[in-house]
Structure formats: structure tokens, C-alpha cells
Amino acid sequence: MKLNIVLFGIAKDIAGTSRIDMEVEEKATIANFKTKLINRFPEMEKLASLAFAVDTEYVNDDYVLRENEEVVIIPPVSGG
Amino acid sequence: MIKISEQPLHVQEAIDQVSHSEAGAVDVFIGTVRNRTKDKSVVRLEFEAYEAMALKEMQKIATLIKEKWPVLAIAIHHRIGVLDIGEIPVVIAVSSPHRRDAFEACKFAIDTLKETVPIWKKEIFEDGEVWVAAHP
């Protein structure tokens, strides 16, 4: 199934764009997706942290994704 | 009293928002753009936010503070876009009946903001640029 991926900060620089599509298996979790993401963009594994958000909330590794869901990649935050 | 803006922040606006007749203290934190990181000269900073989520996370900080301390009002303002040396990326103001609560709550607010709010800062040097805290 397809996911709509949104990227910010250094994650956007690594991907070279702020939006991409990715394919994952039905009932894939964030953990499954993270593995695919790092396979596609190995530089993401070198980041100090890598978090994910769905519908403006952080989600854990065991969150089950749905078709066409928008997943936002949250690299290490540095506001303030 | 949570705000993300591309326009310059005004400290007095945050103070006015937390003014309260029961307040005995207003504590204010002002973040400013520093001209050096380690031994490198910083030319400017660029901030970007996942704005809808950042506003929500900032609101969560304000809600949590009201549960933990007897504060009267909280303002958290963050700027995004390009900022020059000396400009203000963040202003936090907290009012409370007694000063200790305002101090503690204000420190908690900026410390938590730096950990949870999806805002990113890029430092621009004369010879390159780096996303702050991106790598261990």
C-alpha cells in the first residue's frame, strides 16, 4: 500500500524533496516503514534520532499504518 | 497565547498576554541568535516548523505547566524563517502569584520546547551550513 511521506529539516535535505511516496506491505508498522526508509536513504540512520508523526501526533514503532496515510518524518528537533 | 510567526517577535506582547491582577511575578525567557557556535562564526539562522504539530506541542507544554505549577498565564511565541545575529527566535512568558513557580515553569517550558516541538534550526556559516543537533 502507498504512504504519503512529508519531510522536514535535514530529512528533507537527505531525500532532496519535502514529499515522497513509499510502498509498504498491508498492516505495516512504523518500525517496518522505518526499515524501508533507511534502506532507501541510509543517511537517515546516522541522525541522532528519527521520530514519526501521523495526524500531528508522535507515533510509536508499533503504530499500524493505513493506506494513503500521511507520515511525517521528524529528524532531531532544534527549536528555541 | 501560543504563536508561530515569520514576523519579528515582540517581548512586550508576550508580557502583556500574561499580565494578571493576581500575579506577583512575570518570568520571561528570550532566546537570541548567537554569533558563534564553538569556534565558527554564524552568519544567520534559518528556522522551519511543522507548524500544525508545533502549535499543538507548544499548547501541550502550556497545559502541562498549568497542571504542575500554580501559574496564571503562559505565552510561547516562536519565530520561523531567516534570523540575523541578535534577533529573537523564541519568547516565553509565565505569570504566577509567586516568583519561584514562574521561574521553574519558564525553565521547564524552554527545556521541553527544545525536546518535543517540531521546529528545526539551520546554522549558516561563511563556509557552509549545518542542521543543529542533527547528528550525535
Automatic annotation (TrEMBL), chain A:
UniProt entry tagged with the keyword Signal: no
Entry superkingdom:
Bacteria
Q: Which residues form the signal peptide?
A: none
| Pfam families assigned | ThiS
UniProt keywords, alphabetically: Nucleotide-binding
- Give the family, as the similarity comment puts it: Belongs to the MoaD family.
This chain belongs to which protein, by name? Molybdopterin synthase sulfur carrier subunit
Q: What is the lineage of its organism?
A: Bacteria, Pseudomonadati, Bacteroidota, Cytophagia, Cytophagales
Automatic annotation (TrEMBL), chain B:
Q: Per the record, a Pfam family?
A: MoaE
Q: What is its EC number?
A: 2.8.1.12
Q: Which reactions appear under catalytic activity for this entry?
A: 2 [molybdopterin-synthase sulfur-carrier protein]-C-terminal-Gly-aminoethanethioate + cyclic pyranopterin phosphate + H2O = molybdopterin + 2 [molybdopterin-synthase sulfur-carrier protein]-C-terminal Gly-Gly + 2 H(+)
Q: In which pathway does it act?
A: Cofactor biosynthesis; molybdopterin biosynthesis
Keyword vocabulary terms for this entry: Molybdenum cofactor biosynthesis
Top enzyme class of this protein?
A: transferase
Q: How does it assemble?
A: Heterotetramer of 2 MoaD subunits and 2 MoaE subunits. Also stable as homodimer. The enzyme changes between these two forms during catalysis.
Which family is it part of? Answer: Belongs to the MoaE family.
The protein's name is Molybdopterin synthase catalytic subunit
